[in-house]
Amino acid sequence: MTVTRRGAILGGALLATGGGFAGLLFAGRAAASEIEVTKEMILNDPGAPVGGNPKGDVTIVNFTDYNCPYCKKVAPVLARVIREDGKIRHVYKDWPVIRPTSIDGAQLAIAAKYQGRYEMAHEALMKVPGSGVTREQMRAALETAGIDMRRLDSDLGARNVDIDALIKRNMAQGDALGLTGTPSFLIGPFRASALDYQSFRQAIADARAKQAEAK
Amino acid sequence: MSQNNPWRRVVWALLVMLGALLAAPAGARSPAAGTRPLPADQAFRLSATRLPDDSVRFAWTIAPGYYLYKDKFVFRRGAAGLPAPELQGDGKTLDDPTFGVTTVFHNRAEAVVPVAGGKTGTVEVGYQGCQENGICYPPAVRQIDLATLAVAAAPPQATSSVADAWSAPPARAPAQAAPGGVIAVDDGGGMVSALLNQGGALVVLGSFMLFGVLLAFTPCVFPMYPILAGAIARQGEAVTAWRGFSLSLAYVVAMAAAFGLLGLAAAWSGQNLQMALQSPLAIVAVSALFLALALSMFGLFELQLPASWVNRVGGLGQGRRGSLASAGLLGFTSALIVGPCVTAPLAGALIYIAQTGDVALGAAALFALGLGKGVPLVVFGTLGPKALPKAGPWMARARQGFGFIFIATAIWMLSRILAAEAGLALWAALAIGVAVWLGAFDATRPDAGAGARVARAAGLVAALYGVILGVGAATGAGDPLRPLARLAARGAGGSALVQERAFHTVDSETALRARMAAAKDRPSLLYVTADWCVACSVIERAVLPDLAVQSALGQFNLIKLDVSDNAPAQQKLMKRLQVAGPPTMIFVSPEGREASGTRLVGDVTRATLLASAGKVEDAR
């Protein structure tokens, strides 16, 4: 097996936690690096949850992690920008790279998609402070937010393969983009990390201008 | 914020409101905004050196604006973990609601790891960090060969060509400023959206109502009392509290409605109504109106709406319906009088309407503003008729007193467009007029009562003040509170006037861009002004020459945007900068970004200007 960057990251996580890292992605790394990454799949992966206005004229792709403090800081700002703008298509990419339990968070959030509550789950998980959130804390937050936990567990089991495949695709996409960490955003033709309110608006305006130019 | 405690909400709303008066509230700051994070190995450079005692020192050089978590360092040799070494560096404990309590290292971190008899094999080091306000990196693992102490490079990134589809957003360097506008305008969208964001529409309306109550104590509102009193008095003897209440309420609601309509008109016409309200024509007209009111108070004519209007509005022109309607009509027209007093909140609401197109909320906010302003009027209208003594000669005196107040208001308005010394001369004339009215120059009979003597004393004081003002005006002074400043300065042997720092005038975006580029790494102050802008001339006369202000502005690149002509290029630039109208002051960092929470709109005082300038300094 060639050493991929992702392998090293996950190895690092393993190291950092004394080997407790979920084996799922580690085993799947070689396969993940072979996933073909296209711009189309980054923007329009049919499995990826979409929020905002699905018909919006600017797409924001959000590579995020439920143990990432700046993701948590920026989440309400981005939500406000998207709400106020009204024409943003918001594509979520769970990209669990910060801690081993980030993978738990990604799985739980994606599983909520099958009961139509991905965004509710995402928001709830982003509201749990800190960068070392346990799976139990995540489950408690989801339950409080109103996720049907029985349904969630059943989807985690039945949709296991689809969920893991989506996470692997996300991992491969993040790698292919050369992302350095989370949060990472693709805003129209631009890439960015955490932004403040005004910078988001500016980037969106710039993206619109550039898209109009390209037409 | 507690949803359960309404008082906290009120207090909070007041605080926000006051804060919003000084400046738009700050948004989340992100120094890293727009800059692409460094690759992990550039953000955190790891090196290893062998020490004489068979140990290895690992040192990380951490790029500015980046940090490593203290509790994420891991050391391993082969399969075995190494005991946790003591970590040294610029440790700092963060207690952030999002992060929890963590200790992080800035600049550098260091650990000495014993490797007994180890000149072969490898040590694995794990660490993790973040870019401040940017991203957090995945855990990094590096292998160090104990023989050479070389740090193995990070595995190559499997980046594919698909990454080329996205580029960094346009840079925001000062020289090549933001493409959306020469200045990256601070967020918040002004106080309405800040209030809306925090507490919803009710908080917006409540806050504007409170604003109105505060504004009720500005000079523009005084004339409304005699007008309202007149409207109530015409009801004759039988004015009950209830009647007074309903009449004054009709008056106030109509006045508030006029404000709401102003919001609607602003939204639909897209025009800058403030410009209209501040035009010399409007000011002369309002001053003339006040003068007419004053003459009416002196008994030259009876202040009353034409009977034909009242008839049309009231249908029958008599009875309760008619008088309520005429009180309403009076209130509606009175709103014009108050217009010039409400620059700041008016601008706030108008900016919001322009930005969001939310006509309903903007107009409702202005309506609430009008209602708030009317609260004391309603109290006066309800209690007044009972509290006031029976009609008598005193009423004529009271009316004349109001007449002087009206003249004062007319001068106050006019002095905004007149030369300062001309304004002072008018004040001098008024003071002497008051003195005459108070009987300063009448002979006091030996049997005169205490009241007459007090009045005469006050009249003499007014006369003295009038003379001093007149002398001041003759020397070219303009400040009614320091009419002799110029004489004093001359007496002190020379001009005490400071050499004021000059503003560079620009009139287009290109000129502004060039000015800002020329400033290099100094912050800029962009002052939007116009020759017709009344509040601007007050700022230029009373605020900018202040010594403390001058010294605070010393570090700024001072730029003046003169929108007197209201030319298309100027309008465009104002729109870009989200400026509703002059006076507006925008503080811009050397990077071309508006400093958060520093914008000044409307009445700029020494205190607010110093506060904003101080904030810019602190942020550097």
From TrEMBL, chain A:
UniProt xrefs under InterPro entries: TAT_signal, Thioredoxin-like_fold, Thioredoxin-like_sf, Thioredoxin_CS, Thioredoxin_domain
Keyword vocabulary terms for this entry: Disulfide bond, Oxidoreductase, Redox-active center, Signal
Span of domain Thioredoxin: 24-209
Transmembrane segments: none
A Pfam family per the record: Thioredoxin_4
Domain of life according to the entry: Bacteria
Function: May be required for disulfide bond formation in some proteins.
Family annotation (PANTHER family): DISULFIDE BOND FORMATION PROTEIN D, GLUTATHIONE S-TRANSFERASE KAPPA
Source organism per UniProt: Camelimonas fluminis
CDD domains: DsbA_Com1_like
Stated family: Belongs to the thioredoxin family. DsbA subfamily.
Name by which UniProt lists this protein: DsbA family protein
Automatic annotation (TrEMBL), chain B:
Signal peptide location: 1-28
PROSITE patterns: THIOREDOXIN_1, THIOREDOXIN_2
Enzyme class: oxidoreductase
Superkingdom of the organism of origin: Bacteria
GO MF annotations in UniProt: protein-disulfide reductase [NAD(P)H] activity
Sequence intervals crossing the membrane: 201-228, 249-269, 281-303, 324-353, 359-380, 401-418, 424-442, 454-474
Annotated keywords: Cell membrane, Cytochrome c-type biogenesis, Membrane, Oxidoreductase, Redox-active center, Signal, Transmembrane, Transmembrane helix
Domain Thioredoxin: 478-618
Principal location: membrane
Cell compartment(s), UniProt: Cell membrane
Known EC number: 1.8.1.8
Topological type in the membrane: Multi-pass membrane protein
PANTHER family reported in the protein's UniProt record: THIOL:DISULFIDE INTERCHANGE PROTEIN DSBD
Name of the protein this chain belongs to: Protein-disulfide reductase DsbD
Organism per entry: Camelimonas fluminis
This protein's encoding gene: dsbD
